[in-house]
């Protein structure tokens, strides 16, 4: 979703802004622009399309000189992705220049008010309202104007603003949309996310909601909306630039698929000691766990698939009722939350607007909130009662892989912890299961060797218009993820069905040669899914069966067989997802798709 960068220092701003925007490309965008100030004048260059289009346009106009600037990648919400709607936007007679992430909910009433006051709008965006509104309030004091704007608008925003009569200063603020300040020496930076500034500094302020930052080259001051100076700890980034670079891989997704053994190992190992699970971040006592009436899990996208998986596992291992909701549904359905219920929130970015709203809904109804988050100090992490971090490192490809796997690892840890607390996990069994868990990274290493086989499979099916995924129980949950991976990056229509539900509709879509991925790894459900495999086979489907080494007999009924090693049934999702990710990856590559930045999608969805 939209990305913001800003620079104030002694170097030429333009290349630093472009470089920063490139580091934020993963967030997903459809237009880009920068504004650079020099001698009390701010010039804007912006265009629809990719950053390379912006670079071409900059070259055409002979570049922008100046040492202060702001930049933006836009993911269209209000108004199509056009040059005019791209940011930065001008306010007033042009003296204000602004970039914005988020949505201004009361923009129509504000626009009407400003139009009556003589302001002329050129774009269809809600953002232009902010630029004019800032101008309306600006009487020479940037902080005053910002506070007034923040008190007037409703919605979510991260904004960065330049005023022509305040050369060398950027003012920025956030509410419900991420923003960080990078602290340099004689230069300071602004960005939606850390990778954009990491080349220049490891020291940052992670702005919180309703905080304002005023940046000059030698100083950064933070304020609240009462104009009090806010003191904040400097956050020192410990991970390396390489973690956010491709390091020789063709795509981030390919690199991140390969990083899964490490992500799982790093997530599990600090929380397993001598064969016993210990999650120090989880403050729930055994007594509280025993008294949980229901676990409410909320998430979006792939994180919701982890939640679907978690439901089966928690109920199986701890016998605690569990409900998994799409965050966008949960927040508006007035969920019933009773005393003792807990809410588990799953999010890679920790910024997903619907997930955050669902968290707030659960909290307001008295549930204790435990989050599983990848991005340290993100809003969801900060607002949760307990946060268990996934140790996946920065994930850049829009389609999640390693964060998904690390989330599953946390689910297993929680399931063991809950199971132990309710008295269903004898010590010996805990030792066996933690041992199995610690084998997952090497089993995944082995699965990564299936690349050639899966590439061949992708060649065979690359021309398909539809691909179906079927499975039961945990295999159904992972089918959902396999199907999403395929459609989001290759644009091939795909659906996942609970295998038992197939004959209630979907089976009518099966034709001669339709590829059907049948995930049949759960022992107790194998025979049942085999029945469904036979049903689709009888109707002409081309069946690709994903089974464990135990169930090799499926080859009689399937056109292709992919085998994963044996582990405890509840941990199989971690192995099953790997071939599905690799298959989706090669399907997308063979179709010439932009694997890391699929069309219309965003990595961090900060609007509802
Ligand atoms: C976007 C991403 C998905 C992700 C979902 C939830 O749609 O493309 O990969 O699963 O958001 O994001 P979160 O950061 O909350 O896990």
Task: Tell me about this structure.
The chain is 35% helix and 23% strand. With 608 residues, it is an alpha/beta fold. The strands form five sheets. Strands 3-2-4-1-10-9-11-15 form an eight-stranded antiparallel beta sheet, covered by helices on one side. Strands 5-6-7-8-12-13-14 form a seven-stranded antiparallel beta sheet. A five-stranded parallel beta sheet has the order 19-18-20-21-22, sandwiched between helices. Strand 16 and strand 17 (276-277) form a beta hairpin. The longest helix has 22 residues, at 427-448. The radius of gyration is 25 Å and the shape is globular. The model has no long low-confidence stretch (mean pLDDT 94). The protein binds 6-O-phosphono-alpha-D-glucopyranose. Residues 300-303, 347-349, 352, 355, 398-400, 601, 603-605 line the site of 6-O-phosphono-alpha-D-glucopyranose (G6P). 6-O-phosphono-alpha-D-glucopyranose is lined by residues 300-303, 347-349, 352, 355, 398-400, 601, 603-605.
Keywords:
608 residues, alpha/beta, 8-stranded antiparallel sheet, 23% strand, binds 6-O-phosphono-alpha-D-glucopyranose
Shape: globular
Kindly report the spatial arrangement of strands forming the biggest sheet.
3-2-4-1-10-9-11-15
How large a portion of the residues is in β-strands, by DSSP E?
Answer: 15-25%
| Total strand segments | 27
* Helix content range: 25-40%
Q: Structural class of the helix and strand makeup?
A: alpha/beta
CA-based gyration radius:
25 Å
Q: Extract low-pLDDT stretches.
A: none
Bound molecules: 6-O-phosphono-alpha-D-glucopyranose
> Helical region count?
18
Distance, first to last CA: 12 Å
Task: Summarize the biggest pleated sheet.
Answer: 8 strands, antiparallel
Task: Average the pLDDT over all residues and give the rounded result.
Answer: 94
């Amino acid at each position: 979703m939209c990305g913001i960068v800003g620079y104030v220092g002694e170097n030429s701003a333009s290349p630093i802004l472009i470089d920063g925007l490139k580091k934020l490309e993963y967030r997903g965008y459809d237009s880009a622009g920068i504004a650079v100030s020099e001698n009390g004048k701010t010039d804007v260059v912006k265009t629809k399309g990719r950053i390379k289009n912006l670079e071409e346009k900059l070259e055409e106009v002979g570049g922008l000189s100046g040492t202060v600037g702001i930049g933006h990648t836009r993911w269209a919400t209000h108004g199509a992705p056009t040059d005019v709607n791209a940011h930065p936007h001008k306010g007033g007679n042009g003296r204000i220049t602004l970039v914005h992430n988020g949505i201004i909910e009361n923009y129509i009433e504000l626009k009407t008010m400003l139009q009556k006051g003589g302001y002329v709008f050129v774009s269809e965006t809600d953002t232009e309202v902010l630029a004019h509104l800032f101008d309306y309030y600006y009487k020479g004091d940037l902080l005053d104007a910002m506070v007034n704007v923040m008190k007037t608008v409703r919605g979510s925003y991260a904004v960065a603003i330049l005023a022509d009569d305040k050369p060398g200063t950027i003012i920025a603020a956030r509410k419900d949309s991420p923003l960080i300040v990078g602290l340099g020496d004689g230069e300071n930076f602004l960005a939606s996310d850390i990778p954009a500034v990491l080349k220049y500094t490891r020291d940052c302020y992670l702005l919180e909601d309703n905080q304002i930052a005023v940046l000059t080259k030698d100083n950064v001051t933070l304020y609240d909306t009462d104009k009090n100076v806010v003191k904040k700890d400097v956050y020192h980034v410990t991970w390396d630039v390489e973690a956010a670079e491709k390091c020789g891989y063709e795509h981030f997704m390919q690199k991140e698929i390969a990083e899964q053994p490490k992500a799982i190992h790093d997530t599990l190992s600090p929380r397993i000691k001598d064969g016993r699970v210990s999650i120090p971040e989880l403050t729930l006592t055994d007594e509280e766990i025993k008294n949980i009436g229901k676990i409410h899990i909320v998430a979006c996208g792939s994180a919701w698939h982890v939640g679907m998986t978690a439901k089966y596992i928690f109920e199986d291992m701890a016998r605690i009722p569990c409900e998994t909701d799409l965050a966008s549904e949960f927040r508006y359905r007035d969920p019933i939350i009773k005393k003792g219920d807990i809410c588990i929130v799953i999010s890679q970015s920790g910024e997903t607007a619907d997930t955050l709203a669902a968290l707030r809904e659960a909290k307001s109804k008295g549930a204790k909130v435990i989050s599983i988050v990848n991005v340290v100090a993100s809003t969801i992490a900060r607002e949760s009662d307990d946060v268990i971090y996934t140790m996946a490192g920065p994930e850049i490809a829009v389609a999640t892989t390693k964060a998904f796997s690390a989330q599953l690892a946390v689910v297993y840890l929680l399931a063991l912890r809950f199971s132990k607390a309710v008295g269903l996990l004898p010590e010996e069994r805990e030792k066996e299961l933690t041992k199995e868990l610690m084998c997952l990274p090497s089993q995944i290493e082995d699965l990564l060797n299936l690349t050639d086989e899966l590439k061949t499979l992708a060649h065979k099916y690359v021309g398909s218009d539809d691909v179906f995924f079927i499975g039961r129980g945990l295999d159904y949950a992972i089918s959902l993820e396999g199907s999403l991976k395929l459609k989001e990056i290759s644009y091939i229509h795909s659906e996942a069905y609970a295998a038992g539900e197939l004959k209630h509709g979907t089976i009518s879509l099966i034709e001669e040669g339709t590829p059907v991925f049948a995930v049949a790894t759960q022992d107790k459900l194998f025979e049942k899914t085999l029945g469904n495999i036979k049903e689709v086979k009888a109707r002409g489907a081309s069946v690709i069966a994903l089974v464990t080494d135990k169930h090799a007999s499926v080859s009689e009924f399937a056109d292709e067989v992919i085998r994963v090693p044996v582990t405890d049934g509840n941990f199989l999702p971690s192995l099953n997802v790997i071939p599905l990710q690799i298959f989706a990856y090669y399907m997308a590559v063979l179709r010439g798709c932009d694997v890391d930045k699929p069309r219309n999608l965003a990595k961090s969805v900060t609007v509802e």
